[in-house]
Amino acid sequence: MASDSGLASLGVEGATAAAHALSLPADSFGNNPQVEVMWAMKAYNHAEVYFNLISSVDPKFLKLTKVDDTIYSAFREAFQDMNIQQLHPDLLKSAEAKEKWRPFCNQFEGVIEDFNYGTLLRLNCEQDYTEENTIFATRIQFFAIEIARNREGLNTPVFTSKTNKS
Length: 166
Known about the structure:
Layout: H1 11-22, H2 33-56, H3 68-78, H4 90-93, H5 95-106, E1 118-122, E2 134-138, H6 139-151, H7 156-165
Antiparallel strand pairs: 1-2
Helix pairs in contact: 3-6
């Protein structure tokens, strides 16, 4: 992932202002395009950090939250047959999927900070974040799928491909 843009391009003052703005209640903004850009940059920054992490540390040993075990168990109970190696957008975005995801996500309200914030999620776990390989998901969906990918060894090819190039 290139980091020519993002929060670094804002400078210290801009990044501080963005961080302050993102901490305010959402209803204080209305439909402000600048806030949407800041959220997109925050999501991009999170994605970049996460991809760098799974590229440099064996993902099987990563712990993403204090409740990884709970998230993983609940996810695999609710979504036993979901192919998380190659996600199809309908598995997250269709009306039927949203009905199934809603109770799963809501059980983590108050458990996972900002559980419903927007996050970028890779569709194919063996590839980097690109426009074609990225979907917008909630933070708890990201955690559920990435914890499962890590535990099931599906993110290992990212780690091995990056460490073999070094």
